[in-house]
Amino acid sequence: MTESDPTTVAFVCVQNAGRSQMAYAFARRELDAGGLEGDVSLVTGGTRPADEVHPEVVAAMEEIGIDVSDRTPREVTVEELRRSDLVVTMGCSADDVCPAGWGGENRDWDLDDPDGRPPAAVAAIRDEIRRRVAQLFDELA
To answer: What's the confidence (pLDDT) of residue 101?
Structure first.
């Protein structure tokens, strides 16, 4: 990797339908607001992607003006993870569920799964993800 290569951050969870989608949306917002478009590259995906983003996640993000209704969960590839400088898992065990073998640092944020949770619980998870993404981008800046 050369100095001009962007830092690649991957947000990964099992279904790529909740936590990692929220993290990716907040990270996109941070990229745009911080003018880091050429400095940071983002990846998101899951090991067993769902068919759609969880409806309660869509609703929680809409509450704060972020539309994720058009997002589609996708499978993350081992190659994408190998190219990543930082892989952030959302609470899945990196040994049992998430692909191993990435080249960079791994952090597990150990967040509750919002799937099927009541709105207040999903909002709390969303707000914690927003806080952690902002903190991560403070580190990257």
So the answer is: 59
pTM (2 d.p.):
0.91
CA 106 vs CA 8, 28, 62, 84, 100: distances in Å: 12, 20, 29, 10, 10
Which amino acid, residue 33? A
Are the beta carbons of 65 and 59 closer than 8 angstroms?
no
Query: Using 50, 70 and 90 to split pLDDT, how confident is the model at 100?
Result: low
- Give the distance between the most distant pair of CA atoms in the chain: 45
Question: Can you tell me the mean pLDDT for 86-105?
Answer: 68
pLDDT for the residue 31: 93
Instruction: Give me the domains of the chain, ranges plus CATH numbers.
Output: 16-140 (3.40.50.2300)
Per the CB < 8 A criterion, the answer to whether 114 and 60 are in contact is: yes
Q: What is the DSSP string of 11-78?
A: EEESSSSSHHHHHHHHHHHHHHHHT-TTTEEEEEEESS--SS--HHHHHHHHHTT---TT----BPPH
CA distance 134 to 92: 21
